[in-house]
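User: I've been trying to design a sequence by hand for this structure and keep getting stuck. Would you show me what you'd pick, starting by listing the structure so we're on the same page?

Assistant: Good idea, let's start from the same input. This is the structure you sent:
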């Protein structure tokens, strides 16, 4: 009887532990950070960020910026990123400029479940 009780308890323990459900989030938060030269400070950016998933070719588009950062909720994976727009910045002397720019990368991994960050250098047009 004691032996049967131990076997039942072990069986119940296995059943309960095997019912654990793992949840992997498909989505991730991505922050696309634009960087200029070392002697300038980006004040405002207006433009469009296109994130193309390299596996599915699905395109996510974002057009709202917080300073020089655009944030998006995307599927986890590998992406090509293209950013085009206009930036207002000032240099060390305090003089303000407004110029068109482009920034891109052919590959960036945005696979982490939490926060992902991609740093892109601006190319002035």
């Amino acid at each position: 009887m004691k032996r049967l009780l131990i076997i039942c308890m072990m069986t119940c323990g296995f059943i309960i532990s095997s019912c654990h459900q793992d949840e992997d989030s498909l989505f991730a938060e991505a922050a696309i950070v634009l960087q200029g030269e070392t002697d300038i400070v980006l004040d405002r950016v207006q433009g469009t960020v296109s994130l193309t998933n390299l596996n599915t070719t699905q395109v996510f588009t974002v057009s709202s910026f917080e300073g020089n950062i655009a944030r998006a909720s995307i599927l986890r994976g590998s992406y090509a990123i293209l950013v085009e727009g206009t930036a207002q910045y000032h240099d060390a002397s305090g003089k303000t400029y407004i110029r068109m720019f482009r920034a891109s990368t052919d590959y960036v991994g945005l696979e982490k479940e939490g926060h992902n960050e991609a740093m892109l250098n601006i190319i002035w047009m």
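That's my pick for every position. To get oriented when you compare it with your attempt: The chain has one helix and nine strands. The beta strands are 27-35, 40-53, 59-62, 65-66, 69-75, 77-91, 96-110, 115-121, 123-124.
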